[in-house]
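Thread: Modeling a multi-component assembly for a lab meeting

Hi all, long-time lurker, first post. My supervisor asked me to bring a structural picture of a complex we are working on to next week's group meeting, and I have zero experience with this. I have the sequence lines for every component (669 residues in total). Could someone generate the structure of the whole assembly? Inputs are pasted exactly as I received them:
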Amino acid sequence: MEKRTARSLFIWGTAICTAVFIWLTIDTHTTIPKRTHTDQLTEEVVLGKRVWHKYNCNDCHTIVGIGGYYSPDVTKAYSTRGETWLKTFLKNPESSDPKRRKMPNFNLSYDEVNKLIAFFKWVDAIDTNQWPPKPAVETKPMVAALGDPSQIVLGKNVYNQNRCDLCHKIGDKGGAIGPELTHVGSQRDPLWLTTQVRDPKSHNPNSQMPPFPQISEGEIRVLVSYLASLK
Amino acid sequence: MAYESQKVALKYFVVSAIFFGLQVTVGLLLISKYIWPDPLIGFLPFNTARAIHTNLLVVWMIFGFMGGTYYIVPEESGTELFSKKLANVQFYLLLLGGLVGVLGFLFGWTAGRPLLELPVELKWAIVIVALIFIFNVFMTMIRTKKWTTIQGMLLGGIVMLAVMWLFGIPFFKNLTVDYYYWWWVIHLWVEGAWELIAASIMAFVLLKITGVERHVIEKWLYVEVALVLITGIIGTGHHYYWIGTPGYWLWWGGIFSALEPVPIILMVFDTLHHVRHKNLQVTNRLALYWAVGCAIYHLIGAGVWGFAHTLPVVNRWTHGTQVTASHGHLAFFGAYAMTILTAIYYALPKLKGFDQFNQKRGFWVFWITTISVMIMGLAFGVAGVIQSYMWRGLGMDFLTVQGFMRPWFIVVLLGGLGLFTGVIIYIVDVLTLATKKS
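Re: Modeling a multi-component assembly
Sure thing. I ran the full set together rather than chain by chain. Output:
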């Protein structure tokens, strides 16, 4: 190849690819209103995005998979955690377990929390081409006796993962929004507990407890094992 | 060294080396946070430390590129620099900007966008620094009698670098649009502008140390950069799979980014070709090692690792995991850190007028850093595969999976300590060379 040919390749190749890229960019913009439902992109959502930036959340958490890989992705935080849980958590994010990775308490105001949640709600509905993917394999719940020690350990893990301690107290650790669970095993039977976690409004229609659709049946089983062991 | 004004490059190189050291130090803190429950959380929480880590990377690389450019341009243009004074002013402004940025992060002064955390005021300040730089380089180049391809490519690279930066400045209301243009900075820098600059610097160094005819080297420079841009510009689409942009990006991004290794493979071949057909006795073997090592490492880190998770079927599972961290570390080190170290190990002795210099320390740096980063990259990679499988594939809880990844974070820390050692030796070496009497 001659140097002149190489130069032509460079000039034409770059020009054509740039043109195609700009064309795709323009086309992408025409799809944005529908894919991101910009009609719901209210002033509150924008202010929520500013809160997201102000505390540099994105350098620990990913959103649509971009950002720091230190902490959980928040793209679907709204639909998997729910509003009540997010509200409680954002006011008091510090884990009571010293061994777990910590999120510092930024002392967000109620106003900031509400805006941030509005932002999460809007992000949750963006059409991301089905990302994050649904797990490829359904983890099957282990069939073991209810009081089995291994089940209790797993159940404690489910309790921690879902930060039940934000509202409930066991021993001297936890919040005061929900009832204390220190002796719940001697107060409620496993069936009652299972129904309560599955549908928090089943026993008391006015219950403030949010539903936890992300907790699988297997997880509820081990969680109840753990709760039933608290006597 | 042919021109007195090339000497302004010296202080750029020194600061570049020191900031590299700081970046690695903060990196050690970051990985410690993964292993133990968040040391120093009150003073330097993860998000602040990460902002400092990544911005220091950009700053030391920009210092390296600018120093390299100031060294190359007078020699290529056959004239003294347009203004040595401007080059010095611009140096102090950039240094000030970098330091204010890092200190600002400590006090929560941030735009809150990953990698583009600098507040908007500082971003505009950087634009001014870039304009001074481009002006100075351009005014020097137009004095030339004969435009060379290396000059043109270098100028193109720095102009593109400045133009793309502008897309990182505004606040976007829509997250999808925000990330759409965020990638115009991040991707079109590292797979566009920076490649142009790095390829030009490398072509210059190879021209000088191998003595291969200019028209051969410049022809390959054209081919290589042409392929980088042809694959890289539309290849930006591999970042548009899951951010809310249309599904056709899975095809455009997938196909074009899958071709991105092609120019890198070509680069390895033409580098080896130039070295094999050298017309000169190579006295600076160290610079040659860095140049060849850079080509190979570039292929592994950017080419192979990039390809591994660029196709949508794979990326669906690995997106947002430590697989990206693995690729990021290997690619930046191979493609850019090693280019800058090549330039510095070539130019620094020249600037001081040494025909011979003690290369022993430089070879230690070469082996320690390349091996250490490889250990880090592989360990991040294993952690990322575990994460993709357990978190995404099995749907396990995020923090529970982090526990399974912990042993590999410890390996990253060990690699990081190795890298830290190598970089300390490097800084000592650069300072020794820079302060030694000619």
